[in-house]
Amino acid sequence: MSAKAATLESRIRQHWDRLSSHEQRLADVLLAAPGQLAMNTATELARSAGVSKATTTRFFRHLGYESYEAARRQARDMQSSGSPLYLQAAPTASPLASIMQQHLEKEIANLVNSYRSLDSEQLQQAVNAIAQARRVIVMGWRHSQTIAQLIYRDLVHIHPDVRLLPRPGDSLAEHLAASSRQDVVICVGLRRRMPALEAAMSALAEREVPMLYIADVLSGKPARHARWVVRCHTDSSLLFDSTAALSGVCNLLCSLVARQMGKTSSDYLAQVEALHQTLNELE
């Protein structure tokens, strides 16, 4: 790993034995919550670790950074990428009730801002396309697949051909080879996206397959391949990104598809429910 690409944590591990006791104290503070480097000045960080500002300056030079600001820029880049390690805040003595209230207010703000940013015309076009599609493929990796599963779980009740990708043990080619302009692919791409997402969307775009892309506000490169893009707010007051707005918007999307399909979706759902009873699958 090059010095430029090396993370703060890897640099600390590499240089630990050569750090002074005061520098090691500062290292312990940063390893507990490296994200505070992005938020604090050198003076503030030194105060939180109980060391001098001069110690803080020497510490970052010993780690190979040109300056404190260079290290801070790297930490901000890590935060922007969605690294949970850099998103966690330093431990505080805030009461639980205060933490809960801040979290609630942030979740509400995410919902409100996401719904306000929806383009109703674009959403209706996507709903029409999904309702009329021969096949609907829902695709996402890592935590994005959790949201993809929500969409799949709703659409499978109303549409006769819905598929969730990637499947364990499978490659994508076998499933995408038969895709065409008669299908719709719903792609979920939250930050810290895997390169496989853009590669798949690029291949689908070459086949002229219509795509709906559901992402966070910083939708990234995959957005250029999609016909419709929905961006949801995912900021959180705590460690992990919020999925409240994503869940709400996906519920809205699937409900609108069911409404658009009308009697077709109702008839299909009735068949599903009848089979549930025949197979004694649900309580």
The secondary-structure element order is HHHHHHHHHEHEHEHEEHH
Structural class: alpha/beta
> How far is the first residue's CA from the last residue's CA?
55 Å
Mean pLDDT level: 87
* Name of the CATH class of the largest domain: Alpha Beta
Number of domains: 2
CATH superfamily of the largest domain: Glucose-6-phosphate isomerase like protein, domain 1
Structural Rg = 24 Å
- Helix-residue proportion: 55-70%
The percent range for strand residues is 5-15%
Name the poorly predicted regions.
none
Here the CATH topology of the largest domain equals: Rossmann fold
Shape: elongated
What strand order characterises the main sheet? 2-1-3-4-5
Count of extended strands: 5
Question: What quaternary form is this?
Answer: single chain
**Tally of alpha and pi helices:** 14
> CATH architecture of the largest domain, please?
3-Layer(aba) Sandwich
Q: Please describe the biggest sheet, giving its number of strands, its sense, and whether it closes into a barrel.
A: 5 strands, parallel
InterPro entries: Homeodomain-like_sf, HTH_RpiR, RpiR-like, SIS_dom, SIS_dom_sf, WH-like_DNA-bd_sf
Organism: Candidatus Pantoea deserta
Domain HTH rpiR-type: 6-82
GO molecular function: carbohydrate derivative binding; DNA binding; DNA-binding transcription factor activity
